[in-house]
């Protein structure tokens, strides 16, 4: 590993956010392109890369990188892509088939009739979880996310309003999406199963 990269790793271990932003500035675009080659889904590729970079931040105190930072991140993203594809393949093979107990299906089609509005309940629960997940974001990160997603403002406009750089806006958005994806993934999967049953 080059001396400059070792300095970056050392700064990450110390919790230096500038070092973390450096990962985005230097590697994010390339990693997204690579991930998209695996999963063939731009949104999922961005989520995988965002999750990978956020995980690096989470484990920063015990971070050990003996190769170049880019090689380390490429390997980490590739492994997450493979895991995602394996899970997707298993779900496809199972066809979201229901588990049966005593000959009765746990997820019987009637469960999603008007008498059993599980999908509607899941939607309401998800709305509340989204609200709470957004409230758990750091202040500036939450402000950027709300202005972008709810007020539909451009990154340039947000940067002017908050007095930060466009790159910092991008950093906060990626951080927000990574955290929200981690917090809400189980609810999204439940909704996916529910709506597949309905349709």
From TrEMBL:
GO terms for molecular function: DNA binding; sigma factor activity. Keywords: Sigma factor, Transcription, Transcription regulation. Residues 23-86 form the RNA polymerase sigma-70 region domain. The keyword Nucleotidyltransferase does not apply. Residues 128-180 form the RNA polymerase sigma factor 70 region 4 type domain. Belongs to the sigma-70 factor family. ECF subfamily. This is RNA polymerase sigma-70 factor (ECF subfamily). It comes from Macellibacteroides fermentans.
